[in-house]
Write a structure and sequence with these properties.
The structure holds 2 protein chains of 2 kinds. Chain A is mainly alpha-helical. Chain A has 15 helices and no strands. Chain B is an alpha+beta fold. The chains are: A mainly alpha, B alpha+beta.
C-alpha cells in the first residue's frame, strides 16, 4: 500500500505526506468495507444456501434474480425493515450495543488482511498478532448479547461462545507460530513474501509439522468462527438460537453478517499463513496486471476455503460441549505445541530447509486429495445411478407437470 | 416438585439451580413437547416432561362418532405412521364382531403398514441427525420418504392421514402397476439405507454424541414399559409381529434386529438408532414377500353399515413404528363404542426421560428425545 501511495503522492513531504497516507488508507478501507466485506457477507449466505441445496438434493433460493442471486439483498431489506424488538426485561444499553461490538471485532480484522501485493489497508508489522487480538473482541459482544437478553438460552449460548472462543484462541495462536517462525516476521505481507507461487513453496508443505499446523489452525479457526461442527453457541436444536435468540430485525442481521463475513476472514488468514497468499509467478512488470492477478489468486484460495467450510457445515453433526473442550485441551493444544517445536527444531537442524521433505509432504497431501476425490466420484456416480426419474410415481408429479 | 434454591458448589460458594423451560416451542422437541429442565450450568439435574399440549380427546371422540366414523380420527393418533393406528382400530372392531378379513385385504394392510413404517423410521432417523446438527441427512431421508408418500397417495389418495383401512378390510384394492412400482422403489431404497448409515450412522462425531449416552439396560427398559425399537435397542428380543402374530405376519420370514452395543453399551442412543435402520431393511424383506405372495380376491369383507358389535371387551396389540400399540375397546352393543383406550409407544418413552436425564448435559437431552423417536401427538392423543 505504502509503495502504491508513494507513486501517487509524488514529492509531498512531512505532514502532507502523512496525511496523504492516512487519506489513502481511509479511502481504501471504506472501499474494502462497503464494497467488499458487507456485500461478501450477504453473497456468501446466498452461496451457502445454494451449495447446501445442491448437497441436500433441493433447489435452494432461485426466485430473486438469476439463480436467486439477489436473495441476499431481499433478505437484507426485509431484515432492516423488520421491527427491532427489545425484551422488556433486557438490559437495554448492553442489548443495543452488543451487535456493534461484534461487527467492530469482525471488520477491524480487515485492516490487516491483504488483497494483493500492494493492496492492504495497513501492513502493520504486528499484522497477524493484531488480527488475532481484534477477532477476540467478538467474544465480548457475544457475551454481552447473551447476558443482556435476560433469557437463559441466550445466556447459555453466550457462555458457550466465551468458553469456546477463548479456549480455541490458544491452539489457533500456537498454530500460527510455525508460519511466523518460517517467515521471521508478523507482518502479513512479510509472511506471504516468504512463500512462493508454486504449491510446494507454501508454508503448508514445508514439513509435516507445518502441515499439522495448517490443519490445527483451520480447525481452531472454525471453532472461533462458531462454524459446524463447533457451532455450539447458536446450536439451533439445543439452544434455539443461542445468544441471538432475542434479537430481531437489523440487530440480528448484524450478528449473522459478522458470522458469515468471518468465513472470509478465516479463509484469508489460512491463505496468508499457509497457502502462499497472493503469490503468482512474475509474468509481467505491469503493476496493475500483476496486482489483479494476485488479487484473483488470493480471492480464489480464500473462497476455496470458504467453500470447504460450507461443505463441512452441510455434512457434519455438532460436537457436545465437553467433547469440544476435550478436543481443545487434550488434543489440539499438545499437537500445536508439537507443531511449533517440531518446526523450530527443523529450522535449527536444516537452516535452509529440505527440498526433499517439502516435496514428500506435498506428494502425500496430493495423494490424499486425489484418493478423496476418487472416493467422492465413486459415491457421486453411485448416487447418480439411483434413477429418480423412473421413481416419481405419484399424483403429486401429475399435478405439477 | 420442590426447587432447591440454595446449593453449594465444591468450594462451598452458594449457587442457584437454573430452571430452563424447554418447549412447547423449541426446535428440537418435535411438535409441542415441554420439559422443565433443572440445570446446573450445562449439566441437567432433572428434565421433567410436561405433556398434554397436543391432547385432542381422540379416545373420547370415539365414543361419539361411532365405529366406522372413528377411522379417520385414528390417523391423528400418530400422524407420522397413520397406517398402524388404522390397523389397530380395524382389528379391534373386527375381533369384537368376529369378522374375517379376506386374505388379499390383509396383504394390502401389511403392505401399507410396512411402507408406513419405513416412512416413519426415515423421518425418525433423519430427525436424529438434524437434532445432532447434521442438516443434510434429514433432507435425504425426507427425499426417500416423499417417494413412499407418492406410492401411498396412489394407494389411498392421501399423503399423511391415510384413512385407508376399513373395518373388515381396506378401502381400495392396489392400483394398477402398484406391485411393480413398490418393488422398483424397494430396489432403490436398499442401497440408500446403507448410504445413509455411512453418511450419518458411522460418522465419528455422531457416534460420539450417541454412544454410551442415556443407556437403558434390559431390566430397566422392561420396568419402564418401553416398547418397540426402544425396547429392542436395549437388547430385549420382542416384536409383536413375530411373537404375537396378527394379520398375516406369520407368512413372512423376517428377523428382529436388536441393539448389541456395537459402539458403546447395550441400550444407548446409538443402539436405538441402528435398530431403526435395520428394521427398515427387515420391512423391505417383508414387503418383498408380501408383494410376491399377494393372493387374488376381495379386499374387504361384508360389514353392515350400521355396525353394532356384540357386547364385550377386546384388547389388540400391534407393532406400530413407535412400538407396541395396545387398543382396548369396550362395546356395549350399540353403534358407538363404550370406551376406547390407546396405549402408545411414545407415551412410555416420555416417562423414562425424567430418569435418564439426571446428570446428562442439555445437549444430551436432545439426543435422548430424538433417539426415543417421540412424536408429540402419540403422547397425548
Amino acid at each position: 500500500m505504502q509503495a502504491f501511495l508513494d507513486t501517487l503522492l509524488g514529492d509531498a513531504v512531512g505532514l502532507e505526506r502523512q496525511l496523504g497516507y492516512l487519506a489513502g488508507m481511509v479511502v481504501f478501507g471504506a472501499v474494502v468495507v462497503f464494497g467488499f466485506v458487507l456485500p461478501f457477507a450477504g453473497i456468501v449466505t446466498w452461496a451457502e444456501r445454494r451449495i447446501w441445496a445442491r448437497i441436500q438434493s433441493r433447489v435452494g433460493p432461485n426466485r430473486v434474480g438469476p439463480f436467486g442471486f439477489l436473495q441476499w439483498l431481499a433478505d437484507g431489506v426485509k431484515n432492516i425493515l423488520k421491527e427491532d424488538i427489545i425484551p422488556t426485561v433486557a438490559d437495554r444499553p448492553l442489548f443495543r450495543f452488543a451487535p456493534y461490538v461484534v461487527m467492530v471485532g469482525f471488520i477491524a480484522a480487515f485492516v490487516c488482511i491483504p488483497f494483493s501485493g500492494d493492496l492492504i489497508i495497513a501492513d502493520l508489522n504486528i499484522g497477524i498478532l493484531y488480527v488475532t487480538a481484534v477477532t477476540s473482541v467478538v467474544v465480548v459482544g457475544i457475551l454481552m448479547a447473551g447476558w443482556s437478553s435476560n433469557n437463559r438460552w441466550s445466556l447459555l449460548g453466550g457462555i458457550r461462545a466465551a468458553t469456546q472462543i477463548i479456549s480455541y484462541e490458544i491452539p489457533a495462536s500456537l498454530a500460527i507460530f510455525p508460519a511466523v517462525l518460517l517467515s521471521g516476521t508478523l507482518s502479513m505481507q512479510g509472511i506471504i513474501g516468504e512463500q512462493g507461487a508454486a504449491p510446494w513453496q507454501w508454508h503448508m508443505f514445508h514439513s509435516p509439522f507445518t502441515l499439522l499446523g495448517f490443519g490445527l489452525f483451520f480447525t481452531a479457526a472454525l471453532a472461533e468462527g462458531n462454524r459446524t461442527p463447533f457451532d455450539l453457541p447458536e446450536a439451533e436444536s439445543e439452544l434455539v438460537a443461542g445468544f441471538a435468540t432475542e434479537y430481531s430485525g437489523m440487530r440480528s442481521t448484524l450478528f449473522f453478517m459478522a458470522e458469515w463475513g468471518n468465513l472470509y476472514v478465516i479463509g484469508a488468514l489460512v491463505t496468508t499463513l499457509y497457502l502462499g497468499g497472493w503469490q503468482v509467478p512474475q509474468f509481467t512488470y505491469n503493476p496493475v496486471l500483476m496486482n489483479l492477478a494476485q488479487m484473483g489468486v488470493f480471492l480464489g484460495k480464500s473462497l476455496a476455503c470458504v467453500f470447504f467450510m460450507i461443505w463441512l457445515r452441510a455434512t457434519l453433526p455438532r460436537v457436545r460441549v465437553d467433547q469440544l473442550m476435550a478436543l481443545c485441551w487434550k488434543y489440539m493444544v499438545p499437537l500445536a505445541m508439537l507443531s511449533v517445536f517440531g518446526t523450530a527444531t527443523l529450522m535449527v537442524a536444516l537452516p535452509n530447509g529440505s527440498h526433499t521433505l517439502r516435496m514428500a509432504t506435498f506428494a502425500v497431501v496430493v495423494g490424499v486429495v486425489i484418493r478423496f476425490a476418487f472416493k467422492v466420484r465413486f459415491h457421486l456416480k453411485r448416487s447418480r445411478a439411483l434413477d429418480y426419474s423412473s421413481l416419481s410415481t405419484g399424483a403429486s408429479q401429475g399435478l405439477s407437470s | 416438585m420442590s426447587v432447591e434454591l440454595e446449593i453449594h458448589d465444591s468450594q462451598g460458594l452458594p449457587t442457584e439451580e437454573m430452571t430452563l423451560n424447554m418447549g412447547p416451542q423449541h426446535p428440537s422437541t418435535h411438535g409441542v413437547l415441554r420439559f422443565i429442565v433443572k440445570a446446573d450450568g450445562e449439566v441437567m439435574r432433572r428434565a421433567i416432561p410436561d405433556i398434554g399440549y397436543l391432547h385432542r380427546s381422540i379416545e373420547k371422540i370415539a365414543e361419539k362418532v361411532g365405529w366406522h366414523g372413528f377411522m379417520p380420527y385414528t390417523d391423528r393418533v400418530d400422524y407420522v405412521a397413520a397406517m398402524a393406528c388404522n390397523q389397530g382400530w380395524a382389528m379391534a372392531a373386527e375381533q369384537l364382531a368376529g369378522i374375517e378379513v379376506p386374505r388379499r385385504g390383509e396383504y394390502c394392510r401389511v403392505i401399507a403398514a410396512e411402507l408406513s413404517r419405513i416412512c416413519s423410521h426415515l423421518l425418525g432417523v433423519g430427525a436424529m441427525g438434524m437434532d445432532m446438527g447434521a442438516i443434510t441427512p434429514f433432507t435425504h431421508a425426507l427425499r426417500e420418504r416423499d417417494m413412499i408418500m407418492d406410492l401411498l397417495e396412489e394407494l389411498c389418495g392421501a399423503r399423511l392421514t391415510f384413512n385407508y383401512m376399513r373395518i373388515g378390510g381396506v378401502a381400495w384394492d392396489l392400483p394398477h402397476d402398484f406391485v411393480e412400482k413398490v418393488s422398483h422403489y424397494l430396489d432403490h431404497l436398499e442401497p440408500v439405507i446403507e448410504e445413509f448409515n455411512q453418511l450419518l450412522g458411522y460418522n465419528r462425531i455422531y457416534v460420539k454424541r450417541f454412544a454410551d449416552v442415556a443407556t437403558v439396560d434390559a431390566d430397566m427398559a422392561i420396568a419402564w414399559g418401553l416398547v418397540g425399537p426402544n425396547l429392542r435397542g436395549s437388547g430385549v428380543d420382542f416384536d409383536v409381529r413375530r411373537d404375537l402374530p396378527y394379520s398375516v405376519y406369520e407368512d413372512f420370514d423376517f428377523d428382529v434386529p436388536l441393539g448389541s452395543g456395537e459402539m458403546g453399551s447395550i441400550g444407548d442412543c446409538w443402539d436405538r438408532y441402528i435398530v431403526r435402520m435395520r428394521e427398515m431393511v427387515e420391512s423391505i424383506r417383508i414387503l418383498r414377500q408380501a408383494l410376491a405372495g399377494i393372493p387374488e380376491g376381495p379386499v374387504i369383507a361384508k360389514v353392515a353399515r350400521n355396525f353394532k358389535p356384540p357386547v364385550g371387551d377386546v384388547h389388540v396389540k400391534i407393532e406400530a413404528p413407535r412400538g407396541e400399540q395396545s387398543w382396548y375397546v369396550s362395546s356395549d352393543g350399540s353403534e358407538y363404542p363404550h370406551r376406547v383406550h390407546i396405549r402408545t409407544g411414545s407415551f412410555t418413552a416420555m416417562g423414562i426421560i425424567d430418569r435418564l436425564s439426571r446428570g446428562l448435559m442439555i445437549a444430551d437431552l436432545v439426543a435422548v428425545i430424538a433417539s426415543m423417536d417421540i412424536v408429540a401427538p402419540e403422547v397425548d392423543r
